[in-house]
Each structure stands twice: as structure tokens, then as C-alpha cells.
Hints:
Blueprint: E1 5-10, E2 17-22, E3 30-33, H1 34-38, H2 46-68, E4 75-85, E5 88-99, H3 105-118, H4 120-124, E6 128-135
Parallel strand pairs: 5-6
Antiparallel strand pairs: 1-2, 2-3, 4-5
Helix pairs in contact: 2-3
Amino acid sequence: MKRTATAIWNGSGKEGKGTLSTQSTVLSNTQYSYLSRFEQGVGTNPEELMAAAHAGCFTMKLAFVLGAAGFTPDSLETSCIISLEEGVINRSALSVKAKVPGISAEKFQECAADAKANCPVSKAYQMEITLEATLV
């Protein structure tokens, strides 16, 4: 399986702007710029997209891990913060809140740790990855 995306940029790094498009068209000429990346401009940015990718991948993997352990979640809600410091993306912080009938806190933590270690995005990211997992 291969997925594609395209970035187009016009102008200088600070004054220019660009668009991002994906094969699925979920992003279609979506604006990004210096302002949307480093300040509060309209549009997306690479770190936001990395956070979405990690949150989505981890959450789906957790659903599979829980299913393999005999549990079906009522809900899984994951947020992810990607940190960009001094020009380096150096940390991904996952935080999941889960409603999983019948699971013990210990088993849930085990499943969450498995998903963190084994989701494809976690494996691709060469940075510190933290996880806060809470049953609600």
C-alpha cells in the first residue's frame, strides 16, 4: 500500500505560502504558510498533520489490540501534541481517554503500551513518544 500527498510552495520561506493535497482529497489545495506553522495563521502545518497521523494510527491500533484481548471499546479519544523546538521535531505526546467495558486498569495499560509501541506511525517517528492512558 502506498499513499501520496503533494506540497506546492510559492515565494520565500517567511513571506511565501503553499498548498497541500492528498490522494484521498481530504486535503485539497489546503493552505499552509509561515504564519500557520509558527504563529496563528489560517491553514495547516506539518506538525499538526503529524499529530493527526499519530493520534489516528495509535487509536486504531489500540482498538485492534483491545479486540485481540477480547474487549470492544465503547469509545477511544486520543489527542497528540507534536513538539517542534529549535528547528527539531523531538516529541510526540499521546493522551487517550477510553471507555472499555469489563477491562481492568492493568490490562488497559498493557494494551495501550502495546499500541504505542507497535502502531506504524510510532515505529516511523524517531523521537521521544510519551503516553498518558486513562479509563473513564
